[in-house]
Amino acid sequence: MNDFLFRLFRNGETRLHELNYLFWECTTRCNLHCRHCGSDCTMGSRDKDMPLEDFLGALDTIPESHRPKGFTVVLTGGEPLLRPDITTIGREIKKRGFGWSMVSNGYFYDEKMHHLLMGAGMGALTISLDGLEDSHDWMRGHAGSFQRTVRAIKTASAQRGLNFDVVTCVNKRNIRELEEIHSTLESLGTPQWRLFTIIPIGRAASDPDMILSKEEMTRLMEFIALKRKNPSGKMVTTFSCEGYLGKWESQVRDTPFFCHAGINIASVLIDGRINACPNIDRDAFSEGNIYSDNFYEVWMNGFKRFRDRDWAKRGICTQCKQFRNCLGGGMHNWHGACEEPLTCHYSLLNAE
Amino acid sequence: MKFFRNILKGAALTTALFVFQACYGTGPDFDPGIEMSFHVVSKQTGEAIPDITIMTRGGSESKWFEVGKTDSQGFAKIYGLDYKHNGIDFKFEGKGVTPKDTLINDFSKNFHEIRL
Ligand code: SF4
Ligand code: SF4
User: For chain A, N or C: smaller number of CB within 10 Å?
Assistant: First the structure.
């Protein structure tokens, strides 16, 4: 699809703004302490888990006629498996006609857990793996977590019908391991591997090992493009949605860059705030709170800054010739006073 | 606008356009799978039996794994993505009852009464 048609499609989607992807940050407790975590979660997080009935109250504001096929509630955290009521959560979501899925670090994901979750209707799953054994355990701040994650990946990969993928946050350390991670994942039967880079927020902001240079970013693009062009097995390798990539767009993804935040994606955050992806600046972009507002009314009538991105013509984006394709990159890239995006892959890849 | 969208959605080549996932999110759950409802009652009295563990076989060694439990009224809903491909063996067990295995392969019927 050429750029013009794609922009037409994107504008149409924006005007329709059909909600079909809803994150619920059901806990901020986490058993690990990852270097790249944007949430600053801890095992003893100061935020209490949101009670299920509070979230269901928000979900129930969505009229039945506005629950399209494929509408997915994505449980995220923290680590969702720390919630003892995880299967009740899944069943209640299913009962209302939505699909549900989960993002997990895989630590507690054994065969027993897998069957409980499948029985409760889980339809998609993402598990993060951040390198070979040493790198993964270093990144996760926990020896032994690699083995647990591999067990989880093997179990989930064997499940017919589950929309499962593995994500890897690429950093200066694990970029040297991509080839071996690829073979490891293929040998485990992983259907899809998605790579992304770090946004310099949370713990990652002050960690020099996390941010890729121009050469490393180019190497990453070349690696993904090659794996897509000459796959060695069934596994699909792809780059995540995070930013506009210019000439690499068609080589590393299935569809051109399109930040769906606030257009199809919303979130209910741990404290009830209504936003889009959970990695978006909560203070700058929250649109309401389920404890004081009707969730679906906020979806329908709020989110103006998400649906009209002209405000993003600032800082380096002001004069950018790619603005109409990129619209200032992902919403997660605008923080604080929003004077400039935190990163721009296009500029990095094309730097002199 | 919806018309244009439906045309695009209908064209197999462009279906991928509608399948997106946020950086930290999962892919969409497009397959609602099969939903099975069970009501577990006593063979002798006909009364509902709560807290019965429902299991299916799984894993490389085909062991029994719990997939749900009956509620206080003896009801349970179990979901499965691959049920339509295979007949599925369910096992029901709980305190004071003789466990029972049942093979279900008629998925046109999604309500099953189980007498223990
Ligand atoms: S400068 Fe801004 S609009 Fe241009 S490619 Fe970078 S993020 Fe996108
Ligand atoms: S905000 Fe970021 S993670 Fe969310 S859809 Fe946009 S680019 Fe993707």
Answer: C
3-state secondary structure of A127: strand
Determine the pLDDT at residue A140.
Answer: 77
CB within 8 Å: B20 and A115: no
Question: Please, what's the b/e burial string for A180-208 (b: 16 or more CB within 10 A of its CB; e: otherwise)?
Answer: ebbebbbebbbbbbbbbbbbbbbbbeeee
The closest of A274, A276, A275, A273 to A261, measured between CA atoms, is: A276
Contacting residues of B for A69, CB less than 8 Å apart: 30, 32
Query: Looking at the domain assignment, is residue A36 inside a domain?
Result: yes
How far apart, in whole angstroms, are the C-alpha atoms of residue A313 and residue A286? 20
Nearest CA in chain B to A70: B30
The model's pLDDT over A33-46, given as tens digits with 9 standing for 90+, comes to 666 665 444 455 66
Q: How far apart are CA A196 and CA A243, in angstroms?
A: 10
State the ipTM, two decimals.
0.89
Tell whether B22 is covered by a domain. Answer: no
Burial class (CB in 10 A: 0-12, 13-18, 19+), B95: exposed
List for chain A the helix, strand, coil content (%; round to 5). Answer: 40, 15, 45
Q: Is A206 inside any structural domain?
A: yes
Q: Tell me how many domains chain A contains.
A: 1
Is B54 in CB contact (< 8 Å) with chain A? yes
CATH at B56: 2.60.40.1120
CB of B37 less than 8 A from some CB of A: no
Task: Report whether the peptide linkage leading into residue A302 is cis, meaning its omega lies within 30 degrees of zero.
Answer: no
pTM: 0.93
A274 lines ligand 1 (CB under 6 A): no
* Residue B29 belongs to some domain of the structure: no
Element (DSSP H or E) covering residue A24: strand A21-25
According to DSSP, the residues that pair with B103 across neighbouring strands are B89
Rounded CA separation A136/A142 (Å): 9
Task: Enumerate the residues of chain B whose CB falls inside 8 A of the CB of residue A256.
Answer: none
Question: Ligand 2 centre from B23 Cα, in Å?
Answer: 6
Degrees to nearest 5, angle at CA A271 with A270 and A275: 75
Say which ligand is closest to the CA of A340: 1
Q: For position A303, which CATH number holds?
A: 3.20.20.70
End-to-end CA distance of chain A: 30
Query: Residue B12: which pLDDT band, with cuts at 50, 70 and 90?
Result: very low
